[in-house]
Amino acid sequence: MSFSLLMRLAVLMVVGLLMVQAVEAADREKLLNEPGVYGTFAAFRFDADWAKQDQATRIAQLTILRGVVEQHREKLAIDTYLLRGLSDQADLLFRIHATELRESQQFLLDLQGSLFGKHLMSSTVFSGLTKKANYVPGMQDNLKTELKVSSEPGPKPYVIVIPIRKDAAWWSLPQEQRAAMMQEHTEAALPYHKTVKRKLYHATGLDDLDFITYFETSRLEDFQSLVLALEKVKEYRHNRRFGHPTLLGTVRSLDEIIEVLAQ
After folding, report:
1. For residue 212, which of 112, 132, 163, 199 sits 20 to 30 Å off, Cα-Cα?
2. How many domains in the chain?
């Protein structure tokens, strides 16, 4: 390796380390669990030049990635996922929670403007808003109780993200008719409540979507059975879009992401 290349790598690593500031992290639990929080999903593919770089260069640029993420942890909860090998849509996924959507935007601008980000090709970005759970009117108390039961403890390594858009007929239906169909939806999904963790984001008006559904599970067979069960209910007929893309990957810490991408 030439002296000039060594110097360039050293500079890159120093810059990346300087970006890692000792800031107080955002209240992650609050951002993940309270209503009124924006969730942004940003999936990326690597360009052809990423794999052509030597390992030392990739490591230096991944140090920049760490710096950008740490720089924004004061206001954001940022989760990372590896899609490579399981999804043809993208290699990498970021899920970002923020009280202000412009903070998520700034993170993505800084990420894509960095030396690491120059190798990222945007695959898809969509945003939604969390809301307080709104139970179907007339839902039986035993169903409400079962829905409040937490999912089984233990790691859930798989993540699935499915954007959904309803047809115009759905929004034109009387409230009581929609409520009845959503109760049927809930009853069909309930057997998988403990093994498939679910989070819903409302996207109407923020994106060309109505909902973003996020799932974590250790049992992909249960998730598949859940989707098959939901395809049989009346409410499913009003899905104009279900997926396209469906993002499938694994939950990985930033350290794990860096280790994989450095290879």
Report:
1. 112
2. 2
Of residues 207, 208, 192, 120, the one with CA closest to residue 160: 192
Phi-psi region of 176 (alpha: psi -120 to 50; beta: other; left: phi over 0): alpha
Indicate whether 125 and 145 sit together in one domain: no
Query: What does the chain come to in residues?
Result: 263
**Is residue 95 annotated as part of the catalytic site, yes or no?**
no
Q: Is residue 69 part of a domain?
A: yes
On whether both 167 and 104 belong to a single domain, the answer is no
| Residue 100, CA distances (Å) to 20, 37, 69, 73 in order | 22, 8, 17, 14
> Pick the catalytic residue: 198, 219, 241, 252?
198
Is residue 146 domain-shared with residue 86, that is, in the same domain?
no
Q: What is the CATH number of the domain that holds 241?
A: 3.30.70.3420
Dump pLDDT digits (tens) for 125-177. Answer: 999 999 987 756 666 667 767 766 777 888 999 999 999 999 999 999 998 89
Residues 146 and 116 occupy one common structural domain: no
Q: Is the pTM of this model over 0.85?
A: yes
